[in-house]
Amino acid sequence: MTENVHVQEQFQDAEQQHSTDVLGMWVFLGSEILFFGGLFLVYTIYRQAYPEAFAEASSHLNLWLATANTAILLSSSLTIAMSELLLRQDRLRSARLAMAATVGLGLVFLAIKGLEYYLEYAEGLVPFLGSFSYSGPDADQVRLFFHVYFSMTGLHALHLAIGVGLIVSMLVLSFRCSDRARLERQLEVSALYWHFVDVIWVVVFPILYLIK
Amino acid sequence: MRSLIVTYVSLLGLLALTAGLSFIPMGMGNLIANLGIAVAKVVLIALVFMQLRSADSLTRTAAVTGLVWLALLFWLTLNDYLTRT
C-alpha cells in the first residue's frame, strides 16, 4: 500500500481501515451463508426423504453444461484474484484486463445457465410456469426437486449478476479514482464477494447435478 | 502469482475428479466423494483466493462463525426430521 493513504476520520490508521473493510465483508458473507443455508437445509430434508425421485430428477439436468460452467466460474475466481495481485504490483493495465476477463467469464456463465433453463423449459420441467409436464414415477417429488433446483440456481445467478455489476463498477473506478489504496481495498472486498459466489456454486454443483 | 495458478489447476483437477467419479456407481461412496471434493475446493478457495491463510484472527473468526451458525441450523432441524418415526 502506498505511503500517503487517505484515512477516513473514524479510523486510527490505514491498516485498521483496511482490516475493517475486510471484516465487514466477511460478516456480510456469514449472513449470506445462512441465506443459502436455508435452501441447503430444505434440500437435505427432501433428498433424504425422496432419494430415488431426486436422483431421477437430477438425471434430466445437463451435466456437461454445468461442468463447463463450474470450470468457467473457477477461472473467473483466478482472474479476479490475479487482478488484485496485479494492482498491488502497480500493473494497472493488466489488472484492468483481469477484471474485464472476470466480467466476461461471469456473463458466459449466465448465458450458459440461461441456455440450461431454456432446455429445461422445452422439456417441460419448470414447475412454476405452468408447463410442468413430467409424468414419470414420483412426479410430485420430481416437481419438488425442480422447485429446489430453480430456487438455488436462480438465487445463485442473481448473486452472480450482482457480482458482475460490482466488478464493472471496480473497472469504472479504476479509471475515475486516483486514490490507488482505496481502489485496492474496494477491489479486495468485491473479490471476496465474487469468490463467495463461486464457493456457493462449488457446493450447488455436486448436490444438484451429481446424484445418481 | 504462482500459488494462484497452482490452486486453480488443483481446483480444475478436483472438478474433473468429481465429474468423473459420478459415472462410477459407488452408492454412498459417491455422496461422500462428492461432498469431500466440494469441501476440499471450498477450503482451497477460502484459504488462497479469499486470503484467509494470511488474514488476522478476527477475520478468520468471522469467516468460521458463519459456518458455526449453519451447523446449528442443520443440527437442530435434522434432530427433528431424522428422528421422526
SSE map:
The complex is a heterodimer of chains A (212) and B (85).
Chain A: H1 14-49, H2 51-58, H3 63-88, H4 92-122, H5 139-176, H6 180-209
Helix pairs in contact in A: 1-5, 1-6, 2-5, 3-4, 3-6, 4-5, 5-6
Chain B: H1 2-21, H2 28-49, H3 57-81
Helix pairs in contact in B: 1-2
List keywords for this structure.
heterodimer; A: 212 residues; mainly alpha; elongated; B: mainly alpha; 3 helices; 79% helix; 0% strand; flat
Short summary:
The complex is a heterodimer of chains A (212) and B (85). Chain A is mainly α and 212 residues long. Chain A contains six helices and no strands.
Overview of the structural elements:
The complex is a heterodimer of chains A (about 210) and B (about 80). The model of chain A has no long low-confidence stretch (mean pLDDT about 95). Chain A has six helices and no strands. In chain A, α2 crosses α5 and α5 packs antiparallel against α6. With about 210 residues, chain A is mostly helical. Helix content of chain B is about 80%, strand content about 0%. In chain B, α1 runs antiparallel to α2. The longest helix of chain B is centred in the last third of the chain and has 25 residues. Chain B starts with a helix and ends with a helix. The model of chain B has no long low-confidence stretch (mean pLDDT about 95). Classes of the chains: A mainly alpha (about 210), B mainly alpha (about 80). The interface between A and B is large, with 44 and 42 residues.
* SS content category of chain B: mainly alpha
What quaternary form is this? heterodimer
The ordered string of helix (H) and strand (E) elements of chain B is HHH
Low-confidence segments of chain A: none
Radius of gyration of chain A from CA coordinates: 20 Å
Q: Estimate the mean pLDDT confidence of chain A.
A: 93
Residues in helices of chain B, as a percent range: over 70%
> Could you tell me the radius of gyration of chain B in angstroms?
17 Å
Order of helices and strands of chain A: HHHHHH
What is the residue-averaged pLDDT of chain B? Answer: 93
Low-confidence stretches of chain B: none
Q: Which strand-content bin applies to the residues of chain B?
A: under 5%
> Helix count of chain B, per DSSP?
3
Number of DSSP E strands of chain A: 0
Number of strands of chain B: 0
